[in-house]
Amino acid sequence: MKYWRKPLDIEYLKIPRGRIHILKERCKGCSFCVEYCPCDVLEISEEFNAKGYHPPCVKDEEACVNCGLCEMLCPEFAIYLDEEEEVPVP
Ligand code: SF4
Ligand code: SF4
Fold it and tell me: Ligand 2 centre from 83 Cα, in Å?
């Protein structure tokens, strides 16, 4: 994200980061996690799980801000997150 001016407290701001875990065999391919991720981190994979659905995969893990939306939305509890170290705003 680019700022049109530099915020006065920018050196104190940190960006949260998360590591995403996908339990592929639980997935039912609804795509909620892919469609609603605000940072476009996930995509539907080409592979099939045992139920015949395409589970999501991580497209851009560096973009994840650990908001937890995918974890909250998934109706099958197939995604969970681990908190990673926060990084400074570039
Ligand atoms: S935690 Fe938020 S930013 Fe990260 S993958 Fe899930 S919805 Fe996207
Ligand atoms: S929200 Fe859950 S069930 Fe739906 S595609 Fe994502 S991981 Fe699969």
Answer: 20
